[in-house]
Amino acid sequence: MRKFYLPKQQFTQVDTLEPHTWVKVVQPTSEDIDYLCDELGIPDGFIGDTADSDERPRTEEEDGWRLTIIRIPIETPEGTTPYNTVPVGIISHLEKQLIVTICYHRTDLMPDFIQHNQRKGISVDTDIDFILRLIMSSAVWFLKYLKQISFLILETEEALEKSIRNEDLLQMMRLQKCFVYFNTSIRGNESVIGRFKVSHYEQYDTDLAEDVTIELNQAYNMVNVYSDVMNGTMDAFGGIINNNINTIMRRMTSISMILMLPTLVASLYGMNVDLPWAEHPLAFIGIMVVCLIFSAIAFWLFKRIHWF
After folding, report:
1. Which of 37, 159, 208, 304 is surrounded by the fewest CB atoms within 10 Å?
2. Which residues span the membrane (predicted)?
3. Parallel, antiparallel, or unpaired: how do β-strands 58-62 and 65-75 relate?
4. Are 6 and 125 spatial neighbours (Cβ–Cβ below 8 Å)?
5. Residues 36-61: pLDDT tens digits?
């Protein structure tokens, strides 16, 4: 699906391709790919690189086209992790006065990016400014999703305090993976800004780039803080699990030893030899009393050393 916007006119949506147009392509079909390659002349390699879900943030140029790849956060409730990052390809051509973005996933960031610029009446003159503002929007969404992850961590911690289940521990592990993805993507987007500062200084808006860097650093610091808290929490629950296992093993050992004493007495009186009081009418009751006394003494001893 593709739509057309005019960044120089406060991101006004239009129906056809015009000068200084932004072509937004989301979840491209084969028809969209043919349009980009045949009618716009975008190199096939640029589109293929954007389709790679593991592509890292970078920028390169070919035949007058510039490809910039950044990574943006998305919510993936049906995936292996609740949140992840995906690449967005930003392809621009200075002479053709054209900007094309390609994303193979439907995200909340792009509609919010458009609505924010329309609401604020922001106009973008160059592709570098467009990329910087898109990176800033991604930093804002990183922060939004980090807050949602913090709520999930609190819910999981409360569940673990009541009962340590494998599902809750796996949830903590999945949330920890989110921090790794976010950390790598934020650093990659920051490297793109540094690359622009060196290679396109004449189009580089220093104030805007500084604002974007501040937002990225804030998101990066929050990722590190939440990651450290998560690691501490996992270590704490790991210690709790080990302690619970030790407690269970002590109790099982105590029970085995308590049951061993009556078993020992019963085994002795089960031998086919002459035994004291074997012919006594109250021998069975006496043996049972002795067994109970031994078990009670063993229980008292284990209770005293806090094995129960």
Report:
1. 304
2. 252-270, 282-302
3. antiparallel
4. no
5. 888 888 888 888 888 888 889 999 88
